[in-house]
Amino acid sequence: MKIKNFEAYQAVISTGSTQGAANMLGISQSAVSRRLSQLEQELDLELFYREGSRLVPSRVSGLVSPHIADVLERMHILLDAAAELREGHHAQSLLRIAVPPGISRRIIPQIVAKFLKIQPHARFEILHGTYEVIRKMLEDKQAEVGFLRLPLTEDYLSNASVIQARSVCAIAPSHPLAQRDAIRPEDLKNEPLVLLGWKRAPRHDLDLVFSAHSLRPNIRLEAHSVSSACGFAAEGIGIAIVNSLLIQDCLDLDVVKRPFFPDVPHYFAFAYPAKPEISDVARQFVDFATGELQQLASSA
C-alpha cells in the first residue's frame, strides 16, 4: 500500500472534497480521485459514494478512518526516524512521554528545556492523561515512558528510581494558619478541607493520621487534581492537603505551602514496558528527569 493513497484519503476527510484535498496536497483533483480508487481497490472496500457532484464518506469509511490516521502517523514517525539516520544522528525518533496534567504546565516544560541543552537532537511528544489513562497508553504502546504514582500493579511495567514527595498544606495567605511554620492535625480541627485521592493509598494514610488524633476531617470539597485543589484553596474554600511535588506546578496561584506533620509520603516514578528495552535517549531522559523531580520534591 502506498502512503500517498492514505494521505489523499485523509486530505479528503479533512477538507470535505477532492478539490480541497488537491489544494492541500498540491496535486490535481484527478490525481486525488485516482489515489482514492487505488486505496479502495487495495482495501477492497467502498470508502466513498457520490451524491450528485459531492463525494460522501461511506459508513465503512467512518469505521476505518481512525485506523488510517494511525497508520499515517506511524508512517510519518518512521520516515522521520529514517531521515535522522540518513543524516548521521542516533536513532532518536520521537520520544513519547505521558504525564498527568498536574506537572505538564511548568515542571515538565522546564525539564525538557534543560534536557534539550544536553541532547539537542531529541524530539518529544508530550501526552497528557490521568494515571489510569497513562497506564493504558503504555499498554497500547502509544507512549514509551509514563509518569505514574506507585506502586505499580502491572507485571509488564518496570519503573525507574522512586521519587518521594511529602504532604504539604496549600493555604490562602489571608488564613490565620498561613502564619504557622508547619501544620499538624490538631491545627485542622473543624477547618474546612479540600482533599483528593479518595480511595487511593495516600488518602487512606491521611485518614489514619486524623483518626489517630481522634479527629474527623471536615471535608468541604473533594478534588481530583492537585492544581484544582490548590485553586480552591486560593479562593479560601478550604485548606488543601497535597503533595510537595505537584504543588510546584501551582506556584502562580495565591497560596502559601506549609509542611504537614506527621508526614504522609507520596511515591512516584517514570514507568515503561519491561520489554523491549526503551531507547537510549528515553533512558537518558528518564534518569535526568528523575533527578530533577527528586530534587524538586525534596526542596519543597
TrEMBL record:
Pfam families: HTH_1, LysR_substrate. Keywords: DNA-binding, Transcription, Transcription regulation. One of its GO terms (molecular function) is DNA-binding transcription factor activity. The lineage of its organism: Bacteria, Pseudomonadati, Pseudomonadota, Alphaproteobacteria, Hyphomicrobiales. SUPFAM superfamilies: Periplasmic binding protein-like II, Winged helix' DNA-binding domain. One of its GO terms (biological process) is positive regulation of gene expression. InterPro entries: LysR_HTH_N (IPR000847), LysR_subst-bd (IPR005119), WH-like_DNA-bd_sf (IPR036388), WH_DNA-bd_sf (IPR036390). It comes from Devosia elaeis. Residues 1-58 form the HTH lysR-type domain. This is HTH lysR-type domain-containing protein. Belongs to the LysR transcriptional regulatory family.
